[in-house]
C-alpha cells in the first residue's frame, strides 16, 4: 500500500506539473498574441493619425495666421437649401439653425473679438428694401459683414441699398441680378475693395439647377481689426 500510495502521489504531482506547464504555455502564448495585437493596433492608429489631414476652423483648407479670423460660407442652393456662414468654427447662419431665409442673409461680427453681433435676412423678392437699408445704416465701424443670397437676392434692391453694400467693400453688388448666387465678406469702414467675394450669374444656358446657378462657396482669413 505504501508503494502504491507513493506511486499515486508521484503521478498526481506529475499531472499537476504537466497541467501547470500546459496552462502556463497557453497563457503565455495568449499574452504574446494579445500584446502583439495591441502593438499592431497602436501602430495602425499612429499611421492613420499621421496620414489623416488636419482639420482647420470651419473646415477651411489651411490654417489662418495669428490675428486673423477663419471663415467659410456658401450661398443657397436654388430655393431648396439655405446658405451657411461659419466664422472661427462657429456656424452663425444655416438651415439647420433655422435662421436663414429668401433674399440676402447677413451676419455681423465684431472685428476685434470675432464675436457674433447679429444675424438677419431680408426678402428681396416679396419683401421691402427699406428694412435692409435701415439695417445697413446702423452697422458700426469695425464690424465684419458677411452676406449670402438664397433663392433671389436682387429683385427689390435699389440704388441706395446697392451703394451702402458697395461701401462695405463689394464690387459685384452693382451687377447682382435676379436669382444670381453671391457671397461676400466685407466691413464697415473698409478703405479698399474686399478680396472676399464670389458671384455667379443666373444663366439658363449654364445653370446647374433649373432656374438657378450652382452654389458658390468661399473661405479665407479675415484680418483682426487693430486699434
UniProtKB/TrEMBL annotation:
Top-level taxon of origin: Eukaryota
Predominant localisation class: secreted
MF-aspect GO terms: carbohydrate binding
InterPro entries per record: FAM3, ILEI/PANDER_dom, ILEI_FAM3C
Keyword Membrane applies: yes
Cellular compartment(s): Secreted
Record-annotated membrane-spanning stretches: 6-23
One cellular-component annotation, GO: extracellular region
Alphabetically ordered keywords of this record: Disulfide bond, Lectin, Membrane, Secreted, Signal, Transmembrane, Transmembrane helix
Domain ILEI/PANDER, residue spans: 102-189
Protein family (similarity comment): Belongs to the FAM3 family.
Official protein name in the record: FAM3C protein
Lineage of the organism: Eukaryota, Metazoa, Chordata, Craniata, Vertebrata
Gene field: Fam3c
